[in-house]
């Protein structure tokens, strides 16, 4: 079928929206009319080739829309269902079977390589265009997803607000609620107040943390963190964050989350912990030098450092849970989302890269 897709052709050139041909859904797949798609820093990293995906490619991995058709063998979704598309996984490996699909043995092949049993998905003027980014490639008017990574939601929910539940917000919320699991009354620090970090802030409030500290270099994002549940904010570019955290907490934080991947900030996220504290690291770093941290801090305090992919989420359970939080007013997604028309994709990319918008969401259909 004919679709419009935003194509990333090189790191230097802007996205171009072009007519393409999309394949029909294969076994276990669904065709989704994309109504909205969030933009994530991973999309930027892929376009800039910081993640080595081949170009040209259709990116986009926070799609939300309506199922148009289903392929052979699909039993849990039907035409007309509203869905949020999230990361893909095989469903049969050890990690998928153990309830940790973000560590799927085929995660890289499926989400970055576009692995698809039914063959090529998108063509432009007879030539294959890279597709299947995070098992969806949702910077398009229609996308193919698997039955496994398209999560049904109620039809009355605003799709432009639900789209970020597929990755960014899912990562922040899942990291706190599924991995760190803070007890009520504890302290948690979030480094980086983007969509993932603010998701973590909201989750910390949900968990009952009584001290929630956000660290960022942008004043606007710190103010947003206060709106969403932070009890304290620290301007990381001007203040010694670790000293400030120690002053606020007394002996250090119980938990921390780093969403930046910046080596010096990662070191701060570990150094700010009290004895037996835990940190979750959710961002990849381009640094080849590693993180500088005195061994006596890590070993002497008995700290736990955990890497986390996609919030270690099981999307089929966490996305409905986040929807319930949204309905209860506990996950105010409208405070972080700003919409852009599909043809404004390059402006939206600039808005997230510059930090002026927390979560840009492209709207393909009104």
TrEMBL record:
Belongs to the zinc-containing alcohol dehydrogenase family. GO terms for molecular function: aryl-alcohol dehydrogenase (NAD+) activity. Residues 9-362 form the Enoyl reductase (ER) domain. Its cofactor is Zn(2+). SUPFAM superfamilies: GroES-like, NAD(P)-binding Rossmann-fold domains. It is an enzyme of class 1 (oxidoreductase). Its EC number is 1.1.1.90. PROSITE patterns: ADH_ZINC. It comes from the Bacteria. PANTHER family: ALCOHOL DEHYDROGENASE, ALCOHOL DEHYDROGENASE CLASS-3. The keyword Zinc applies. SMART domains: PKS_ER (SM00829). This is Aryl-alcohol dehydrogenase. It comes from Cupriavidus numazuensis. Keywords: Metal-binding, NAD, Oxidoreductase, Zinc.
């Amino acid at each position: 079928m004919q679709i419009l897709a935003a194509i990333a052709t090189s790191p230097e050139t802007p996205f171009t929206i072009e007519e393409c041909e999309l394949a029909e859904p294969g076994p276990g797949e669904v065709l989704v009319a994309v109504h909205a798609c969030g933009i994530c820093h991973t999309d930027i990293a892929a376009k800039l080739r910081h993640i080595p995906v081949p170009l040209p490619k259709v990116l986009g991995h926070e799609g939300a829309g309506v199922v148009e058709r289903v392929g052979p063998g699909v039993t849990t979704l039907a035409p007309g269902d509203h869905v949020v598309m999230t990361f893909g996984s095989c469903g049969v490996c050890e990690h998928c079977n153990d309830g940790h699909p973000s560590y799927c043995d085929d995660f890289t092949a499926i989400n970055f390589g576009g692995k698809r049993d039914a063959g090529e998905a998108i063509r432009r003027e007879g030539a294959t265009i890279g597709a299947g980014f995070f098992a969806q490639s949702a910077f398009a008017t229609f996308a193919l997803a698997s039955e496994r990574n398209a999560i049904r939601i109620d039809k009355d929910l605003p799709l432009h607000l639900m789209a970020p539940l597929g990755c960014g917000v899912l990562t922040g919320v899942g990291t706190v609620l599924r991995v760190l699991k803070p007890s009520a009354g504890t302290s948690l620090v979030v480094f980086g107040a983007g969509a993932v970090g603010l998701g973590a802030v909201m989750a910390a409030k949900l968990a009952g943390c009584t001290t929630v500290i956000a660290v960022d270099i942008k004043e606007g994002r710190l103010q947003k963190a206060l709106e969403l549940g932070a009890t304290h904010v620290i301007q990381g570019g001007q203040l010694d964050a670790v000293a400030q955290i120690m002053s606020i907490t007394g002996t250090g934080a119980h938990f921390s989350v780093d969403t930046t991947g910046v080596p010096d900030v990662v070191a701060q996220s570990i150094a700010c912990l009290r004895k037996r504290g835990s940190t979750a690291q959710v961002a990849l770093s381009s640094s080849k030098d590693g993180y500088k941290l005195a061994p006596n801090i890590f070993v002497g305090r008995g700290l736990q450092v955990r890497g986390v992919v996609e919030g270690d989420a099981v999307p089929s359970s966490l996305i409905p849970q986040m929807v319930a939080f949204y309905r209860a007013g506990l996950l105010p997604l409208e405070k972080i989302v700003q919409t852009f028309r599909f043809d404004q994709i390059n402006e939206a990319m600039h808005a997230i890269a510059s930090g002026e918008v927390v979560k840009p969401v492209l709207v393909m259909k009104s």
